[in-house]
Design a protein that fits this description.
186 residues, alpha+beta, Yope Regulator, Chain: A, six-stranded antiparallel sheet, 6 strands, elongated
């Protein structure tokens, strides 16, 4: 008798001593720490597919913008195995990778490839998404990582920003005041 794909995945995680939670007989979840973020990863079987999903890794941000959608299309065009999904309200971004298993078991190599794709692509694109999303906001730009080798560091608030924004009005000389009042100057 053939094992289900989820049983194979459980065996792979057990071999690697990786903890996971069983959600359902066809679904498991785990948390994976990557370089840029901690991901909630769900793996489940659906309609002959094994789906690796990172739900809502970006939340509560307006994603229905041309620059964001163009970046999503660029990534999905370059890497055919990844799919990004914007929620119906346009404020949550999820990623998933599908593996067809209709008539066979998933092999260790196939599992490792699917895990690598979902983990690395989401982790590598996360700072780029932040840069795009917050590039118009100067404060947020300070906290968005610019490079994987040199993460941006927050700068201390010196209080100078406020004083630079307030400009003192120039004092008018007496001649200018009189001219405005309509008085004739000798």
């Amino acid at each position: 008798m053939r094992r289900t794909a989820i049983e194979c995945v459980k065996d792979f995680f057990d071999q690697d001593k990786i903890r996971y939670n069983i959600i359902d007989e066809n679904a498991i979840e785990l948390y994976m720490q990557a370089r840029n973020l901690t991901m909630h990863l769900m793996i489940y079987q659906h309609n002959g597919h094994l789906i690796f999903r990172v739900p809502g890794f970006i939340r509560n941000v307006e994603l229905n913008r041309l620059d964001v959608l163009m970046f999503i299309m660029k990534i999905m065009n370059e890497i055919l195995d990844i799919r990004f999904e914007v929620s119906a309200d346009g404020k949550t971004l999820s990623a998933c990778c599908h593996h067809i298993i209709e008539d066979g078991e998933i092999t260790r190599a196939q599992f490792d490839l699917a895990m690598m794709i979902i983990m690395h692509i989401v982790d590598d694109t996360y700072p780029q998404f932040l840069q795009i999303l917050y590039s118009n906001d100067k404060k947020a730009e300070e906290f968005a990582p610019v490079s994987r080798t040199q993460p941006a560091r927050p700068q201390a608030d010196t209080g100078n920003e406020i004083s630079e924004e307030i400009e003192e009005p120039e004092e008018e000389d007496d001649d200018e005041k009189n001219r405005k009042k309509g008085l004739k100057i000798n």
